[in-house]
Write a structure and sequence with these properties.
It comes from Sphingomonas oligophenolica. The protein has about 60 residues and is an all-alpha fold. It is built from 4 helices and no strands. It has one domain. α1 runs antiparallel to α2. The longest helix has 10 residues.
């Protein structure tokens, strides 16, 4: 099944660069989505995510 490209996602990549592309790939990964859904506490703005979760997915939260 082929999905229709999301114009907003394309614009984000064009305007925001590699990090936006990396986020688009990651957020569509079913394993990432399942892992995120399994977090007991969600990171808040400006606070790092669970260290193991961040290390597994290669995330960096400033």
């Amino acid at each position: 099944m082929v999905s229709t490209p999301d114009p907003a996602a394309f614009e984000a990549v064009v305007h925001r660069g590699r990090s936006a592309l990396a986020w688009e790939v990651l957020r569509r990964d079913p394993a990432y989505r399942a892992a995120y859904a399994g977090l007991t506490t969600l990171p808040t703005n400006g606070v790092a995510a669970d260290a193991d979760f961040a290390a597994r997915w290669g995330l960096h939260f400033p």
